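Hey everyone, long-time lurker, first post.

I ran two proteins through the pipeline my lab uses and got sequence/structure pairs for each. Pasting them in order. The first:
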Amino acid sequence: MEVQTVFAFLRSGTVRPMEGRRAQLRAELMGKIKAAGLKELRRTGAASLSLREVAKTAGISPSGMYRYVDGRDGLLELLISDGFEAFGLAIEEAIEKADNDVLSRLEAIAFTYRRWAQANPDRFGLILGTPVPGFHARADGPTVSSVYRFSEPMVRVVAAAYGAGDLVGLGVDVARDAKVALDPTTFLPESLNEILARGWSRIHGLVSLELYGHLAWGDVNVERLLRAEMRSIMDELSNASPANVNRK
């Protein structure tokens, strides 16, 4: 009878609030670990990131950290993944708010790239700066999907512009139908991949040079340069688009 009572208790779902509470506590602790990791990152840099100091700041034991992250590399994977996710989300939100034309969306990408880097210099350096000595992200780890999450909005804009032919309007569904989020390089022609690489390198190069103080020697208007680069990229897209190729 007692056993039946226990089974009835379990079937009733009464234990679910406890499970939900555990999940909530775990999420809260993971948030503390991430915040502590970012604080330590700002203090010492990625190469000297101390799991012990992060645990101390998060309020857990060093050994307890291993219940949530797989050592220093696991913590770095977590911080890198979160950085790419946040960066990608900021870019996507900017694209959605921009006017529905190619140039406006390209400029939204470039200006958001700059603003996010300036607001998050340590995270920017971690995910897109000098590689951390001795760190190797797992091929099946969280950083892989988060990189696609970061790049997908940019790829979508360029792929849709290419598909639009004359670059009038922006058919977002063109790229999504091609499932570029799974692998941004698989479903695009080689010429378009090259335009993507050149465009990204121009944005990243200017933003990095400014962020790390390498443009301080002159009166350089980075926003004007970014705008000019995006117009150049739009011209390249126009020349590469299917409609123009077919008209030649």
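...and the second, right after it:
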Amino acid sequence: MTRTPIRRRVAAVAATALLALGTGALSASPASAAPAGCPSGAACIYGGPNSSGGVTNQYWSRGVHKLYNQVGVHTVFNNQTDDWKFLLCRGSNGEDCDWTFYEGSWTDVDLTPFNSVIVTP
């Protein structure tokens, strides 16, 4: 019976591959690192996508903040602590908020329609 050894080898290779994937040994690329330049305790907006252009806006204090001259795609990173949130709002006084960034989250967002942000616990 030649099938049994082949099946055993295939099963062994599959088990090894699953184990390696579970430990990250075969992952194709490393986990995406947080954008650099945003201090701990702040929420930051970068000058362009993929954290390009450096940090242009930093928000430290609680409340509604007007958002000026942010057109096109920018990286937004909530590097606040203690589970504080950072919200992007279409209204100029913190109304009609579409995006909520929880502690440690970031993504590229078209900021053109947004006119204010909220920093909140």
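Reply from user beta_strand_b:
Welcome! Quick read of the second one: Residues 3-23 form the longest helix (21 residues). The first strand starts at residue 42 and ends at 46.
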